[in-house]
């Protein structure tokens, strides 16, 4: 061994011994939500021990409270909370998460999801064991209750009571019964594997885009058809029908649907699964169609609701004399802005607004999430380590004017999918699905650029929003960017479908130049095609149907508007066709902007833009509440008393997949002129005249119109045409 190597080894050994001695040093430390990189740097400066993070751990957001504990114990708690470990290096200790630990974390989360579905399925099976058969007597009793429930519908006072009552009854009807029987048959591993926001379709005769319907479902379908025919007989005798307001029909969960006559055996059955977020709730939909593709029954249900565990479900009582959790002053200002949303940027103090604009310097979770946990630690004199994610921004929602007990607050956290433990003088709070939540975290540098650009002019162009949409998480799994944007500029961001924003942002300059004349879908990269697929696989793809001339009543037309061709995997059985064409119409028009309106409880309407045609329809319907009864409630209408002029840019994307099937998406950009609003008659004369001419035209069209039996206006000899 050379002298140089021996000296190096001795130096490293001496360094390790010094580090080991320093790890026993007692430390007291506290911080609100802060990135792990900064936390360990501050601990390092405090204790004199070099502490570092790795790329896998540096962006974890931590909240800590430490009281006179050895640094070694503090390091161990941090590592455990972030599913990491400390690796000793020549220059200190580095917080890492090796691939093996990450894979173990992901496997553990998957197993927990599977276990949750299995437990819920077991509960459902137990509930079904004692369920009586659906006999004619049961159908008769249910029809009576359904009739009374529907009669209780009050068009002037629509509330959740009616909805809850009818939904409860619908679970006893055949359509509700079959859905509750299907949920326990689903493979819990397949449910746990679902990707958020991507619909999976099972079919009795699957296309290449579908999966085969499980064999165990067929006996349930046959029983449903038999029970439905028993129900049809009772429902017809009691004349059940869905209530309506104007041209809006209120669903009763299937109580009054598909009861026109006896039901035959379906020719095709579809079962869809859709997970709407990073959680575990999966929405299920069952669709039965006849040989022409017409839907003869449809029902929906769900599985994966977060059932409270035994500790969270116990009622929490305040300890007499113990201090309660209160919302801090900064958070109160933010929540006030969130609740009104009308002039949020005016309600937030300038210094706090500046903090919001720089999330790289002060993490937003320090304003919204970490303070209540630190209050708990202080009240109970506990050490604290918490890992905070964007998915829990602002939750639980504390009432600014009503403190809550410590135990009640911790119980709320558990209900929100947090693992909360109080043991050995420590309060530990970490997400139940850290890997999943971590993948949705917004990069603070990108978030800061987004908010500052938005704050400059109070709005962003379509191109700017599209660029940020590619760099920020999907709003459906991370609402933090949109939440903060609504505080900075409430009317400045209109997300629409984030996938169309991302798709547009991914197009190269030459591809954008081709859009007006047509961009072949086969020329898209796999990355770009994935955004189109996600639009089609979403919960409600906006497919359109263009029948050939003279085919308005064809089987294909009915199979689309009344049938299963609205399901993209049916309309496009082989996926996105390479010979499809995308065309975009980009138009900018004058527009009038309504004034934001709020009530004492919450904002009914944010600022809205109206072209001359839009405004004409709004004003006409307000003047004819005899034809449009839904327009007579002022609280539920935009404020047209004060209007300001501006411009509205609209991009309409038409994905023409086949000669008859297309998909429409749109993006909107608005720019309002400075100054306060004014009365309609004070707007520019040319615009006022344009609106008035359109109102006159609509009025002539609806002359002698009457309100139809379904609550929709009927024009003489022309049928009902809904307002735009």
Rg (CA only)? 30 Å
In angstroms, what separates the terminal alpha carbons?
A: 87 Å
Give me the number of helical elements.
27
Instruction: Let me know the number of strands.
Output: 25
User: Structural class per helix/strand content?
Assistant: alpha+beta
Helix content: 40-55%
Describe the main β-sheet briefly.
Answer: 6 strands, antiparallel
Report the principal-axis shape. Answer: globular
The average pLDDT value, as a whole number, equals 85
Beta content comes to 15-25%
Poorly predicted regions: 1-15, 308-313, 600-604, 717-724
In short, what is this structure?
The protein has 724 residues and is of the alpha+beta class. Helix content is 40%, strand content 20%. The strands form seven sheets. Strands 16, 17, 18, 21, 22 and 23 form a six-stranded antiparallel sheet that branches. Strands 1-3-13-15-14 form a five-stranded mixed sheet.
Please characterize this protein's 3D structure.
- By secondary structure, the chain is α+β, with helices and mostly antiparallel strands.
- Helices cover 40% and strands 20% of the residues.
- The protein has 27 helices and 25 strands.
- Strands 16, 17, 18, 21, 22 and 23 form a 6-stranded antiparallel sheet that branches. Strands 1-3-13-15-14 form a 5-stranded mixed sheet. It has a 5-stranded mixed sheet with strand order 7-6-10-11-12, covered by helices on one side.
- β24 and β25 (713-714) form a beta hairpin.
- α5 (136-151) runs antiparallel to α6 (160-170).
- Mean pLDDT is 85; it is low at 1-15, 308-313, 600-604 and 717-724.
């Amino acid at each position: 061994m050379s002298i140089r190597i021996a000296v190096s080894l001795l130096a490293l050994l001496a360094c390790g011994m010094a580090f080991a001695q320093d790890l026993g040093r007692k430390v007291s430390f506290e911080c609100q939500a802060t990135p792990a990189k900064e936390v360990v740097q501050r601990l390092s400066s405090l204790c004199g021990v070099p502490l570092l993070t790795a790329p896998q751990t540096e962006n974890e957001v931590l909240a800590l409270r430490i009281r006179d504990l050895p640094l070694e114990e503090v390091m161990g708690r941090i590592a455990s909370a972030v599913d990491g470990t400390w690796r000793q290096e020549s220059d200190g200790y580095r917080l890492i998460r090796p691939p093996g630990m990450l894979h173990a974390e992901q496997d553990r989360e998957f197993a927990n999801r599977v276990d949750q579905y299995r437990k819920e399925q077991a509960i459902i099976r137990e509930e079904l064991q004692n369920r009586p058969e659906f006999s004619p007597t049961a159908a008769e009793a249910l029809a009576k209750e359904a009739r009374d429930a529907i009669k209780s519908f009050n068009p002037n006072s629509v509330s959740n009571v009616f909805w809850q009552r009818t939904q409860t009854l619908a679970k006893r009807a055949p359509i509700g019964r079959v859905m509750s029987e299907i949920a326990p048959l689903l493979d819990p591993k397949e449910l746990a594997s679902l990707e958020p926001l991507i619909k999976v379709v099972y079919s009795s005769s699957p296309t290449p885009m579908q999966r085969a319907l499980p064999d165990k479902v067929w006996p349930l379908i046959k029983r449903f058809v038999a029970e439905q025919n028993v129900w049809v007989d009772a429902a017809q005798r009691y004349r059940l029908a869905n209530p309506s307001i104007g041209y809006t029909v209120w669903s009763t969960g299937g109580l009054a649907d598909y009861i026109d006559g006896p039901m035959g055996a379906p020719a095709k059955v579809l079962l869809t699964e859709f997970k709407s977020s990073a959680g575990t709730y999966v929405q299920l939909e069952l669709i039965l169609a006849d040989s022409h593709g017409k839907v003869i029954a449809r029902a929906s249900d769900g599985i994966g609701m977060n059932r409270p565990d035994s500790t969270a479900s116990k009622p929490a009582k305040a300890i007499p004399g113990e201090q309660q959790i209160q919302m801090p002053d900064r958070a109160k200002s933010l929540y006030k802005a969130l609740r009104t949303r009308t002039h949020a940027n005016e309600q937030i103090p300038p210094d706090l607004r500046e903090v919001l604009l720089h999330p790289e310097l002060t993490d937003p979770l320090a304003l919204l999430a970490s303070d209540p946990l630190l209050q708990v630690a202080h009240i109970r004199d506990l050490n604290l380590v918490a890992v905070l994610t964007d998915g829990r921004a602002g939750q639980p929602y504390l009432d600014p004017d009503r403190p809550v007990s410590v135990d009640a607050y911790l119980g709320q956290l558990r209900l929100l999918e947090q693992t909360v433990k109080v043991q050995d003088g420590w309060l530990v709070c970490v997400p139940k699905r850290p890997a999943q939540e971590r993948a949705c975290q917004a990069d603070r540098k990108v978030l800061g650029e987004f908010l500052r650009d938005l704050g400059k002019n109070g709005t962003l162009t379509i191109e700017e929003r599209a660029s940020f949409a590619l760099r920020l998480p999907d709003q459906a799994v991370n609402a933090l960017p949109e939440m903060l944007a609504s505080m900075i500029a409430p009317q400045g961001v209109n997300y629409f479908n984030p996938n169309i924003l991302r798709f547009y942002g991914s197009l190269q300059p030459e591809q954008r130049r081709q859009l007006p004349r047509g961009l072949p879908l086969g020329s898209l990269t796999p990355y770009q095609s994935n955004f189109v697929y996600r639009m089609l696989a979403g919960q409600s793809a906006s497919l359109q149907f263009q029948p050939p001339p003279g085919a308005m009543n064809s089987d294909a037309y009915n199979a689309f508007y009344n049938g299963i061709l609205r399901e993209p995997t049916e309309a496009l059985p082989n996926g996105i066709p390479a010979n499809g064409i995308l065309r975009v119409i980009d138009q900018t028009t004058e527009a009038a902007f309504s004034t934001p309106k709020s009530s004492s409880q919450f904002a009914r309407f944010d600022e809205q833009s109206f072209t001359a045609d839009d405004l004409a329809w709004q004003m006409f319907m307000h003047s004819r509440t005899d034809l449009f009864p839904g327009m007579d409630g002022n609280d539920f209408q935009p404020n047209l008393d004060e209007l300001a002029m501006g411009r509205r840019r609209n991009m309409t994307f038409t994905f023409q997949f086949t000669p008859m099937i297309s998909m429409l998406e749109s993006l909107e950009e608005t720019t309002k002129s400075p100054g306060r609003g004014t009365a309609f008659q004070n707007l520019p004369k040319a615009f006022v005249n344009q609106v008035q001419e359109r109102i006159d035209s609509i009025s002539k069209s609806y002359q002698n119109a009457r309100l139809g039996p379904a609550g929709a206006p009927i024009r003489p000899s022309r049928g009902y045409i809904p307002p735009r």
